[in-house]
Design brief:
Elements lengths: L20 E4 L2 E7 L6 E8 L8 E3 L3 E7 L1 E4 L5 E3 L3 E4 L4 E2 L1 E2 L8 E8 L2 E4 L5 E5 L1 H14 L11
Antiparallel strand pairs: 1-2, 2-3, 3-11, 4-9, 4-12, 5-8, 5-11, 6-7, 6-10, 12-13
Length: 155
């Protein structure tokens, strides 16, 4: 049986040409791929030392590759460091943090399938995040910073 043909990429997202958007204090992101029509989106996130995100539950798989720094989840006993790959299965629920004593921001590339729900202190639903809501948040954050939305985000 012959090996399958590997097609070259149909487009390239040039990360250095895509601006960081300050989403919340200490949290920045770059949208690399919106993920239409499947809903699987790709982003780079940068979290400052001491940042704690709200608890969230994923609808689908999440793949995370740590480029710089360190981060973890309050619910688990590990910390991901530069070079580490993390897999999060569907329905996993956790609270992301970057240690207060971290010497640099954590930069992580995420591939997220189908989105997530953001939960409040009592596990109440605060927000549903998917590719379109996050892309809108990204574009609005850039506009608030006076930055034009990039052309390089892949569909």
């Amino acid at each position: 049986m012959a090996a399958p043909t590997v097609n070259p990429p149909s487009a390239v997202a040039e990360s250095e040409k895509i601006p960081w958007a300050l989403i919340w204090e200490g949290i920045e992101l770059k949208m690399l791929r919106i993920g239409e029509p499947t809903g699987t989106y790709t982003l780079l996130a940068r979290f400052q030392p001491g940042v704690v995100l709200p608890k969230h539950r994923h609808f689908g798989d999440v793949h995370a590759f740590t480029l710089k720094g360190q981060w973890g989840y309050h619910e688990y006993d590990w910390v991901a460091r530069a070079g580490d790959y993390v897999y999060e299965p569907p329905n996993s629920t956790h609270t992301l943090f970057v240690p207060e004593d971290a010497t640099e921001p954590a930069e992580v590339m995420y591939i997220i399938d189908k989105g997530m729900v953001i939960l409040g202190d009592n596990d109440e639903l605060l927000l549903i995040e998917d590719t379109w809501s996050l892309y809108e948040m990204y574009r609005n954050a850039l506009a608030n910073q006076g930055i034009e939305a990039p052309e390089g985000v892949l569909p």
